[in-house]
Amino acid sequence: MLYLLSFLLLTVTFLFGIHRLRAGLFALSGGHAGNALKKLAGRPLSAMLFGMVLTALLQSSSAVMVITVGLVSAGMLTFSQSIGIILGTNIGTTFTLELLTFDFSSLSLPFLGAGAVFYFFGKGRVKSAGIILFGLSLVFGAMRGFEELAVPVSKTAFVQHLFTVLNTHLLSAFLLGILLSAAIQSSTVTIGMAMGFLAAGVFPLETGISIMLGANIGTCITGLLASIGAGEEARLTAFTHVWLNAGGALVFLPFLHVLADTCRMLSANPEQQLAHASLLFNLLSSLAVLPFSERFGRFIIALHGKK
């Protein structure tokens, strides 16, 4: 029970760290993200590239989705322009996972100390940098904690039974990824926890990839919530995100073992393997839809039509 409570505390710490990191990066951007989106969303390719860069900088596809839905709702972006941005956010969010594969846990305390100094004694951008360093210290510390606790947690009766089910029925792992990501509104945290268990050798890469695919669907809940009462175009934008991620996941599921074998060839590190799987999934899904973004938009309208 103590191990499970500790793991829950680490999850909250990781989630709070990600939140602080995003807040600091958003503050550092000076709140100009929305204006930049409006200027660069003219063509699908430029919109995708900017959506990717902005998501990587803000460390949050959910934040970019909320901004996009808000701009569409305000009439500053059209529904068709938002499609390219959505394709880019899915790619940009994978950069966080690639970053987490490096062991920066030894920097947690220095980052915490520097962050405190910058936050309490700095102003403007220096203060924002302090928030970023504080967030990074929590994220890297929590990731190390996940790895340390993964083995003892996996030996508890409940978790052993859970992993037996997940490893035997990959669809269960897929559904768990959806539910967990929707509940905490963060695919990054969900996949980050899976990376910790992978590093400890608790479950195979195939289980981790199943959770990752599900997490990419669960994270769409943020955009759907943001679209409530925001108008028809905003609603269509949110559904575009759902169909892109759900469709991509359903296409990849039958080839899950192929994806796992490919990632094993790319790296011997289990955490990097899962991060690479997330990158490949989102990159290939977005590139496959990009040339047909207008048709994809018409499909969404036909399916969820304007009332």
UniProtKB/TrEMBL annotation:
Pfam family, any one: Na_Pi_cotrans
This protein's UniProt keywords: Cell membrane, Membrane, Transmembrane, Transmembrane helix
BP terms from Gene Ontology: sodium-dependent phosphate transport
Transmembrane segments: 47-67, 74-92, 104-122, 129-146, 158-180, 187-205, 211-230, 242-260, 272-292
Molecular functions per Gene Ontology: sodium:phosphate symporter activity
GO cellular component term, pick one: plasma membrane
InterPro entries: Na/Pi_transpt, NaPi_cotrn-rel/YqeW-like
Subcellular locations according to the entry: Cell membrane
Secretion signal span: none
Membrane topology, from the record: Multi-pass membrane protein
Name of the molecule in the record: Phosphate:Na+ symporter
Taxonomic placement: Bacteria, Bacillati, Bacillota, Bacilli, Bacillales
